[in-house]
C-alpha cells in the first residue's frame, strides 16, 4: 500500500494543523497522547488512528497561519510553515 497524506489544513481558529496519513501499517505509535515537541511552529502533537489511517493534530504557536507542502507520498512528507 502506498502511504499518502490527505486534507492538510489549519483549523479555523488558527490553533491547530491537522493532516491524515492514509494506508499506514500497524506499528507502535503514541496514540491519543499529547507529545511535546520543540519547533518554531508547534508546541505539541497528538496522533489518532482510524482503521489504516493516522491523523496528526499539531498545536500551533501564535502567528503561524500558512503552510506549504514540500514532499508528499512514499515514506516522507514535509511542510514549511509561516
Structural commentary:
By secondary structure, this protein is an all-beta fold. The chain has strands at residues 4-10, 16-22, 35-36, 42-50, 53-60, 67-71, 78-81. β1 (4-10) and β2 form a beta hairpin. The chain is globular and about 35 Å long.
Features:
mainly beta, five-stranded antiparallel beta sheet, two-stranded antiparallel ribbon, 7 strands, 0% helix
Task: Summarize this entry quickly.
The chain is mostly beta strands and 82 residues long.
3D shape: globular
As laid out across the biggest beta sheet, the strand order is 1-2-5-4-3
Question: Which spans have pLDDT < 50 for at least 5 consecutive residues?
Answer: none
Query: How many helices does DSSP assign?
Result: 0
Which class of secondary structure composition applies to the elements? mainly beta
Binned strand content: over 45%
- The helix content is under 10%
The average pLDDT value, as a whole number, equals 88
Number of strands: 7
SSE order: EEEEEEE
Let me know the largest β-sheet.
5 strands, antiparallel
Distance between the termini: 32 Å
Rg, rounded, reads: 13 Å
